[in-house]
């Protein structure tokens, strides 16, 4: 059976603009930079996020560097698979495994960074965020194993929009330093994400139930 982990299904709000950006940037990637180089840069972005989040606990404007690292990881993550496909040099299964494992580490680094800045009594919210995003990842991988279709966006929201939300949150924290606490809006964000997760799981199990029933009916004919 052909492996389709490198082909993502579904769409998200910024998909059209993202494809235009990708088409513009890919030809500009130096010949000596391979797809695996771009994938592994996530480790460097994670280190920058944690380090400058720690510094931001002393001077909030270091969050600009954190936002830059989030954007930098977005660019390298956007380009790694496409560079491999266009040059026919991609490592499809290695890329699938490492890309998504490093995406998880990237998310953890952001939450660790926030954990270095928020008060202790609000840190439980960060664990809830990690559990939610982890659940979305588990749903994607289990659904992929069952259907062969790899989906990374839900209700029009994908990794691009999530990164943008983190950058917007950082900007608000900087702009309203001392007057804006992210912990106040987190419950609203978490409520929306929780609803989206339940809707996603419901739709996924409904799709799989339909597939199973159709297969059962065909087997009985």
Structure description:
The structure is a single chain. This protein is mostly helical and 221 residues long. The protein has a single domain, classed as Four Helix Bundle (Hemerythrin (Met), subunit A) (Up-down Bundle), CATH 1.20.120.1760. Helices cover 74% and strands 2% of the residues. It is built from 7 helices and 2 strands, in the order βαααααβαα. The protein has a two-stranded parallel sheet with strand order 1-2. The longest helix has 39 residues. It is globular, with a radius of gyration of 19 Å. The mean pLDDT is 86.
Helices and strands in order:
Elements: E1 8-9, H1 15-25, H2 35-56, H3 63-87, H4 92-115, H5 123-147, E2 150-151, H6 159-175, H7 182-220
Parallel strand pairs: 1-2
* CATH domain topology: Four Helix Bundle (Hemerythrin (Met), subunit A)
Please count the beta strands (DSSP E, at least 2 residues each). Answer: 2
Computed structural class: mainly alpha
Radius of gyration: 19 Å
Provide the number of structural domains: 1
What is the chain-wise order of helices and strands?
EHHHHHEHH
Number of helices: 7
CATH architecture: Up-down Bundle
CATH class: Mainly Alpha
Termini gap: 25 Å
Output the CATH homologous superfamily: CDP-alcohol phosphotransferase transmembrane (TM) domain
How much of the residues is beta strand, in percent? under 5%
Arithmetic mean of pLDDT:
86
Unreliable parts:
none
Global outline: globular
Order of strands across the widest beta sheet?
Answer: 1-2
Biggest sheet statistics:
2 strands, parallel
Helical percentage: over 70%
């Amino acid at each position: 059976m052909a492996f389709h982990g490198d082909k993502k299904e579904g769409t998200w709000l910024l998909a059209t603009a993202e494809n235009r950006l990708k088409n513009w940037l890919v030809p500009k990637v130096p010949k000596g930079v391979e797809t695996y180089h771009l994938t592994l840069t996530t480790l460097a972005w994670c280190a920058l996020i944690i380090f400058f989040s720690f510094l931001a606990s002393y001077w909030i404007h270091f969050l600009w560097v954190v936002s830059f690292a989030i954007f930098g990881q977005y660019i390298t993550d956007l380009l790694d698979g496409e560079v491999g496909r266009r040059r026919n040099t991609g490592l499809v299964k290695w890329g699938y495994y490492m890309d998504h494992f490093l995406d998880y580490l990237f998310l953890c680094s952001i939450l660790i960074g926030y954990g270095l800045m928020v008060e202790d009594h609000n840190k439980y919210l960060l664990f809830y965020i990690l559990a939610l995003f982890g659940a979305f990842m588990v749903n994607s991988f289990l659904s992929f194993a069952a259907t062969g279709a790899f989906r990374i966006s839900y209700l029009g929201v994908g990794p691009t929009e999530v990164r943008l939300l983190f950058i917007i949150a950082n900007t608000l924290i900087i702009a309203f330093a001392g007057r804006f606490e992210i912990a106040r809006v987190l419950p609203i964000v978490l409520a929306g994400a929780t609803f989206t997760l339940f809707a996603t799981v419901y739709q996924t199990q409904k799709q799989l139930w339909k597939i199973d029933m159709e297969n059962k009916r065909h087997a009985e004919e």
